[in-house]
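Escalated from tier 1: zinc ion holo job.
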Amino acid sequence: MCRTIIRGNVITMDPDRPRAEAFAIADERITDVGSFEDVRAAAGSDCRVIDQPGASIIPGLIDTHNHMLSTGLQRRIVDLSSCQSIADIVAAVREFAQLHPQTAWIPSGKGWQIETFPDPRYPTRYELDEACPDRPVYLNRGGHIGIVNSRALAIAGIDRDTRDPEGGRIVRDQHGEPTGVLLEAPAFTLVERHVPPSSRAERKAALRDIQQAYHAAGLTGIIDPGLTPDDMSIYQELWQNGELTVRTVAMPLAQTEDEEDKVLAALAAMGMRTGFGDCKLKLGGIKVFMDGGASLGTALMRQPFPDERCNCGIQVTHTATFHRIAEFCARHGWSLGVHAVGGGAIDLTLAVFAEVDARHPIRDLRFSLIHAYLWPTPDNIATARRLGVAVATQPTMQYNFAPMLVKRFGAEAFGRATPIKSWLDGGVRVAGGSDSPINPYPPLLGVWHAITRYVDDLHETIGPEQAIAPETALALYTRDAAWLAFSEHERGMIRPGMLADWVALSVDPTACPAMEIRQAKVLRTVVGGKTVYEA
Ligand SMILES: [Zn+2]
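Tier 2 regenerated the structure:
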């Protein structure tokens, strides 16, 4: 069989042989790893050599918390998250409209801010008309406000004679003309109900298209947590068509508006469980939310938020419900990943895990805490270790949220958040990820931040005591990520028998100055022996 030999500075992530000069591939798997001479002797004379001189080769990077389908969809709406002024918003809408001439409605992503603008107000319909006069524009900030252009007002039939709906307000100028700003749901749903939901074809295309960007960043695999049945079927369709090139572990969402018992019954009736599938698409654990987020003030805290004396956050899932789900998982061979941001949520999740474990051991099921960043205690760490509970951490979250959360909690306290070193020193398995699209997906940004804990916007290192060594940071996104994906026998290392998933980088991340890691160029990304990206 004709083999391919890859030659470069190979960082295998295999503890038995951390470095090599070359490795050989036959079909989609790695056959030999070692010195170039040995690998060539084993591969025979009839082989192709891919030289990556000067490049460092690492196993394909895996993101253990990445909403890939949502990230793909996010690319199909206007992203206003980095706008600093009204002019930026108008420019973003104009650019999107020009780039997407086929899109009937111009919708925006949620969660953008105007508070830091020099002129902190919302754009008017007339400003949006300048950006896009011929098609409706609907900017949704999430929650309480929608901003639209004249075309959208016309489609919704809103004019100066329209009365405010009960519980909502159509903001008007001094002449009584609607300005385009609609306050509260009863007002903006007048427009929103005309916005067509994204079609199945669009959702499929969004998922298919985002993969190329992921490969360009060095990603070869992800875990997509919290999928609906519709999401799951889109993944399956792509997989069936041979179009799923980012290896995916799919985590179905169990808790769906008090229907979790139905979901669990359906899962039990199917008889399948975590691990079903192949190396392209596999069932992961069930995903449950225990609380909300720190920036929204809905993370379940042990004490009130420092800036909101009466707010301890929200417990999203009742303890009894969560107990039922955890017990179901332990009994039926499902893994379980629990979104737990605040200390209250971490305490509660581990307490229930311990109770369930006393009757049905959970160690082999690799239950995990997702995020778990607002101050796990030494007790939490000891419990996680004892139960074999892993942590899916997101250095990118620590990096991205630092400016906002340092304001909220102070630099000292937020420096102790995302305590990767404490988890690892305590003997807990930790895997890395991004939580894209909430945070940027490039895995090297996460690797870099785990090593440096540096935050550009603050010009400061936040919590340097929790920084980890480059090899350890790389392991979070390779070997340990593969383990959390139930794929450690196939991925996460460059080792004979493993899938040929690898990335060639312009720098050696274990040897270069830390600041260079995030600027490292991905030169080539290979999945199962096939080049899926080349610079
Ligand atoms: Zn998430």
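Residues 65, 67, 225, 435 surround zinc ion (CB under 6 Å).
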